[in-house]
Write a structure and sequence with these properties.
By secondary structure, the protein is α+β, with helices and mostly antiparallel strands. The chain has 2 helices and 7 strands; from the N terminus they run E-E-E-E-H-E-E-E-H.
Length: 147
């Protein structure tokens, strides 16, 4: 398959873990069932990945953040049957994951967006949550960075 035979989506996310070993997650509402995801999402055409991550974090959580280093870039493939859009094209999702720290704002829920709430969740509770694959990917990157 050639690069022009599939769609590509650039997304940027941030891992924020507080001193109580709680991670900031957002509840994604566009699937068949709500699932927890990393705060972040699609980067707009005119944005850099860094700008997209900062904007998405503000929209989904209410927090202003300062990004740290890139933890990694993940490539995730979605077949046509697994996409939300009615299409016969595969999707390659390129997901840039950063560390971040909160520098302002307050926890709020996104209005009329792709997430319904944001919440601090103990890392120990994450395996029991319905979650998107980016959660496990981002946590693994964060843990590897700390090792």
């Amino acid at each position: 398959m050639q690069f022009y035979d599939y769609d590509t989506r650039l997304a940027a996310y941030a891992v924020i873990v507080d001193d109580s070993d709680r991670i900031l997650l957002a509840l994604w509402n566009e699937g068949a069932e709500p699932t927890w995801t990393m705060p972040g999402g699609g980067v707009e055409l005119e944005e850099s990945p860094e700008e997209g991550a900062v904007r998405e974090l503000r929209e989904e959580t209410g927090y202003d953040v300062r990004l740290g280093r890139v933890l990694g870039v993940d490539s995730h493939l979605i077949p046509p049957a697994g996409r939300l859009a009615d299409t016969d094209r595969w999707l390659r999702s390129l997901r840039v994951v950063y560390t971040a720290e909160i520098v302002g704002g307050e926890l709020t829920f996104e209005q009329d967006g792709t997430t319904d709430e944001a919440r601090w969740i103990p890392l120990a509770d994450v395996p029991d949550l319905p979650r998107s694959s980016i959660v496990d990917t981002a946590i693994a990157m964060w843990r590897a960075d700390r090792a």
